Automatic annotation (TrEMBL):
Family per record: Belongs to the bacterial solute-binding protein 2 family.
GO CC terms in record: cell envelope
Protein name: Ribose ABC transporter, periplasmic ribose-binding protein RbsB
Top-rank taxon, per record: Bacteria
Amino acid sequence: MKNLKRLALVIAIVMLMGVFAACAESPEAQGSTAANTAEASATVQEGESGAGSYKIGSTANNVGTDTYQTQHDKTLREYAAEKGVDLVQLDATGDVTKQINQVDDLIQQGCDVIIIWPVNGKALVPAAKKASEAGIPVVIANSNIDESGYDYIKCFVGPDNVKEGELAGEMMMEAFPNGAKIVEITGLPGYTTATERSEGFRSKIEGSNIEIADSQPGDWNREKAQQQMENFLLKFSDIDAVYCADDNMAIGAINAIKEAGRMDQIKVISCCFFGDDEAKGYLESGEIAGSVLQSPMTDAKTTLDVALQVAAGEEVEFFSYIDTPKVTPETIGTIDLPAW
């Protein structure tokens, strides 16, 4: 009986020592265990999204030259930070040689994907080829590369500029079913976007009674577009409308038309409405009779999303176009515009 009591006492002491040992674990050790668990969970979540594990290089065309490029750059940086992406964002400031050197730099930095918004679609083909040969996939943003470079890129992300021009042509034909004498203010000569928006517009009005009396570049600049419109007004006394490659230049043209006192005689059709409040006011008033919505925020976010898909080895559409609907004074109030 005494032996049984002694055995029970030994067992109780052993169990009590085990309890004390467990309770004696330091707070630091407990915290380390919790931290390791949280870290493991975060690693799994990051692995699922993949975004935080990639380094994306980007060379922009000319940030600050217009509100679109400025907002696109801002959105791309903010969206990358939101997704935890290591973004190396450079600006070519409209200089082809500088952009080619920036692509070289991004190759040396070992980026997983390089995004290029080309200053010149043809001149950037060798740079895209070099990146491709280095094993780095290239995503072209907003303004396409020359077709000779298609073998060296994964995809193009941005607006279908030819389609935008066609939509503007449709609105011009709807405004003048019996024909009209018009003038055109294009973007920067040699720039793919400018060429495609003009080509799309011209292809749509071909065969109609709409005559393009003259066409001059506005270089995406409001002041230059105003000067070109002033020259048109002096040269022609019977202009029915002007087609502008974007709303910024359209506002420049409107300034000239207003100064000449001919706003009631000339319609303004644009090819690109950024969704900003200023241009929205011109559409609401009818001073811009029609345009095509192209959001820089949507453009930038879609570009980064597709670049991340490419980095993850996913298949993507070669032409990943963003939606660009027609906008008129009658429909502007029904469209959900992104906040600037």
